[in-house]
Amino acid sequence: MKAPISRTLARLFCDNSLSRSLSLGITATFCAMILLLGVFHYSQLYHSALDQLEKSSARRFQRLADTLSLPIWNVDYDTVNRIISIAAESNIAVRIQVEEPDGTLIAKKSSDASIRADKTISSDIYHNHQHIGKVTTDLSFAAFKKKQQQQLINYLFTIGILLLTILILTHQLLALYLKKPLAQLSQMIDQLRTGTYPEHYPKLRTREIQHIALNFKEMARQVSLREAELTQINTQLNEHIRERKHVEYQLLTSQEQFSLIAASTMDGILDRYLGQDVLLYTPRWKELLGYTDAELTNHLSVWLEKVHPDDLKKVTALANGEKYDASGRIELEYRVKHKDGEYRWFLGRAQIIKDQSEEPYRIVGIFSDITLKKRVEQRLLSTKEMLKNIINCMPSLIVGVTRQMTVTLWNDTIEDRTGIITTNAEGKRFSQIIPELTFLEQHIEKSFETLTPIHVPKFTSIRKGVLVTYDIIIFPVNIGNDHVAVLRIDDISERLRMEERIIQAEKMASISGLAAGMAHEINNPLGGILQGVQNIQRRFSIDLAPNIHIAKQLNLSLDKVNEYMEQREIFGLLDGVSECGKRAASIIANMLEFCRGSDTKLIPCNIHCIIDKSIELAANDYHLKTQQNFNQIKIIREFDKNVSQLSCAPQEIEQVLLNLLKNAAQAFASAVPTIENPKIVITTQQTASGVMITIADNGPGMGEDVRKRIFEPFYTTKPVGDGTGLGLSVSYYIITNNHSGTISVTAAQNQGATFTVCLPHAM
């Protein structure tokens, strides 16, 4: 029995076979796993047993202290010795000694002084809660550890026998089910290698190896068939050699045809092997440059020296096989110098050819003269640029809209007006960019349907707080099979304001005649009224001799008469009549000033000095002091240092500026709620035609209906008795008639007002 086992083990460890490798591998894996599990299990058991031993020993020798308490109390040291002798009989207690509290030794017992203690336990001895001594015990677990080592050896020996048995059984099974079938397969492979194709194959035990054997059988059959095919292919190859010779003959014929085509084509053909300076041109390429075939040598340098300097870099890259796409193609436009000295445009299309290792080695290209095409394109670009410049130079807002209501055209004027650049506008929906003109989409649709222009007159909108009026025309334009609507949007706000000024001038002209007649008719009786009131006041004076003389004749007291007049407030009534008469006289004087012809003499003046004087007069005006403290208004001067002298009547310009400042101050005084931080900004600016003066305030402003009528005579928004309505109309007359200038106002409700006065250059 021992001999077969030894032979099996010899084969197992000496035979270099698959079954040996698998057996050893499986056994080694099992051994490692079982060994690790055994060691882990043994370690757990060992520590658990040691822990229990330590705990039981501690409890046992703790009870020893309680047992010794009574003999020590009775000073019965013989009993103490007997007790510790009995306790020392344990195989773990190597030394026990009992001491008094002061350290005096009472009793001691040692089993073996050479054994090293693993643990020492000390316990105090008490009797009736009185400390009477201490017992110290040295413990050794050597016997326990020795016993555990013997158990470990037995455990490992058992595991070794078990693993050896597993190894032998595994080897026998692998030899039966793996080694023998593989040996049979190896024999079959050797037969195939020598060219022998057996007709019968052994039936193997395992399904997988049997499947491999069947595959080898099929492979042998396929190899046999392949040999027959190779024989047939060899026969066919000889036939192909004969056909190839025929193809080579046809290739020579094709080359002749290509040469004829190259000679007759309108394009030049180039062929170059990379790394060589020689270029193979067709004569046609040289003809395109005005040369004969003999006038130009076939060298790369000859070609490159005629290329335009701006195109030389990219043409050099083309010739060197650089910057080609993934397919090895390139298309390039460049200029080459003609024999007549003019540069001609060429379109080069080249293909790079690679060898078997995918390395480029050759370039073949075709070059076409596209000079005429480029000239046409340049003219088209020039025309397109001219049209673009025309559209961008137009003062109108030009927008192109497709049927899908997306923007395709956006000129510079609307770009400046909206702040939206062309690239951000194109492709966006029209209503998204200009939401206030969304209603135009229905008109655009109608224009597409009818193919006729549509006019949308006088559309009013608010832009930056200012009322703006637009005149819009929609033109449908055909572009191929599609339609585009072109919107021309004109800002007619200034034109409408000009029309208002013309209407205002006509009103002023028609009213001036009526005002002049009324002034003359009223002035005479008004003079009589004022003179009569003045005479009545003089007749009651106590200082005039005629009054005193008449009073004495009538036996009257002038003091009593004056006292009566004061008690009855007659003098106040007379003062009121006089004041109203003077006010009426002032109104008539303004009307006459408004109606009379101008004989004003214009002299060169410094407009900044006139403005400063007008501000000083406004600050000292009586009415301004009673209604608005002018010093509380912040005056901001923004004067242009380049402003030249003006030809004007300084007193009249002061009157105009004073009226504007008074109106601004009164507007601040009447504003509800009160304007915080009121300010007036006075700006001067040199223009091409003269000087522009701007007076802007942050007051309550005015509505559109008030703005249109503000220069009309006798039109006022002040309460009755606070104004005549002639201040701004007289100012309008002074600027437009006497100085050939313009005055206008821009205002909105609760957004302040801005008056703009334009005066011509100095003489």
TrEMBL record:
Species name: Halodesulfovibrio aestuarii
The name this protein goes by in its record: histidine kinase
Annotated signal sequence range: none
Coiled coil regions in record: none
Pfam family, one: PAS_3
Domain PAS: 254-315
Cellular component, GO, one term: membrane
Domain spans labelled HAMP: 176-228
Source organism, top-level taxon: Bacteria
Subcellular location(s) per record: Membrane
Transmembrane spans: 22-42, 155-178
EC number: 2.7.13.3
InterPro entries hit by this protein: HAMP_dom, HATPase_C_sf, HATPase_dom, His_kinase_dom, HisK_dim/P_dom, HisK_dim/P_sf, PAC, PAS
Gene3D superfamilies for the chain: 1.10.287.130, 6.10.340.10, Histidine kinase-like ATPase, C-terminal domain, PAS domain
Residue ranges of every copy of the Histidine kinase domain listed in the record: 517-763
CDD domains linked: HisKA, PAS
Domain PAC: 330-382
